[in-house]
């Protein structure tokens, strides 16, 4: 790590701490040449492979934006969306992959969204899974009802 003050090519880590969200590490460094102290923040990179083949960094904001459309008019707060986006990012990072397809992210969104709001889940699933007919909606609703019945008997 280059010193931002004198551009010396090396620095010494004097303190390391994880950030509040646990997804990054804050390091306090000192330059052995000029003695200047500075802070760096390190995160593991996570890239998304879009359908077009373009690769871009993962963005919680994009997850929230996509889900926000499905939640329009529903009793879902921005805080709920932020928690959902964080849960999705954590689930994706737990796979250990540094690159992930948008399709995988969509599948990862479905579970937490279903727990958050079933109507928003159906809206998102209908677009994401390209429902073509009423039968697709009926099948999805039947699955939701079956899951509710299974939860009630537990």
UniProtKB/TrEMBL annotation:
Chain ranges of the ATP-cone domain: 46-136
UniProt keyword list: ATP-binding, DNA-binding, Metal-binding, Nucleotide-binding, Repressor, Transcription, Transcription regulation, Zinc, Zinc-finger
GO terms of biological process kind: negative regulation of DNA-templated transcription
Cofactor(s) in the UniProt record: Zn(2+)
This protein's record includes keyword Transcription: yes
Free-text comment on the cofactor: Binds 1 zinc ion.
Chain intervals annotated as zinc finger (unnamed): 3-34
Coiled-coil intervals: none
GO molecular function, one term: zinc ion binding
Superkingdom of origin organism: Bacteria
A Pfam family the protein falls into: Zn_ribbon_NrdR
Described purpose of this protein according to its UniProt entry: Negatively regulates transcription of bacterial ribonucleotide reductase nrd genes and operons by binding to NrdR-boxes.
Protein family according to the UniProt entry: Belongs to the NrdR family.
Protein name: Transcriptional repressor NrdR
Lineage: Bacteria, Bacillati, Actinomycetota, Actinomycetes, Micrococcales
């Amino acid at each position: 790590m280059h010193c931002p003050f004198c551009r010396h090519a090396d620095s010494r880590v004097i303190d390391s701490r994880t950030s509040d969200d646990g997804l990054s590490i804050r390091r306090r460094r000192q330059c052995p040449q000029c003695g200047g102290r500075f802070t760096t923040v390190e995160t593991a990179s996570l890239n998304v492979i879009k359908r077009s083949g373009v690769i871009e960094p993962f963005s919680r904001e994009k997850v929230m934006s996509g889900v926000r459309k499905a939640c329009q008019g529903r009793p879902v707060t921005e805080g709920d969306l932020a928690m959902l986006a964080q849960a999705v990012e954590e689930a994706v990072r737990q796979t250990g992959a540094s690159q992930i397809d948008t399709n995988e992210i969509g599948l990862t969104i479905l579970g937490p969204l279903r727990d958050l709001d079933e109507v928003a889940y159906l809206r998102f699933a209908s677009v994401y899974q390209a429902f073509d007919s009423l039968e697709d909606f009926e099948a999805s609703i039947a699955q939701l009802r079956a899951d509710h019945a299974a939860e009630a008997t537990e």
